From TrEMBL:
Name of the protein in question: Probable malonyl-CoA-acyl carrier protein transacylase, mitochondrial
GO molecular function: transferase activity
Lineage per the UniProt record: Eukaryota, Metazoa, Ecdysozoa, Arthropoda, Hexapoda
UniProt superkingdom: Eukaryota
Gene behind the chain: LOC103520710
Amino acid sequence: MVPAVEPFALALKKATINDMIIPVHSNVDGKIYRDANHIRRQLPKQIYKPVCWEQTLHILYERPQGNHFPRTFECGPGKSLVTILNQVNKKAGDSAAKVPC
């Protein structure tokens, strides 16, 4: 997959990418993209680097004691997301809801 990185990065330079209006997390390190240039630097890495799914979930659901906990909705067949949430963060799994499609 590494050979695809350079052409993809060149295409991103030509693409219109706006700064985010909602938080978007990078699969590379779980951190929130800061701006459009940060997206251009990080997205090509997703081609060849492993997805940091567990680290991202920890970042998404980390809350100080007593703070509101976000609700998660799983759409579609199966219950993969809820299962993973229960393994990574029991409180997140308990707050998740299955939404039939």
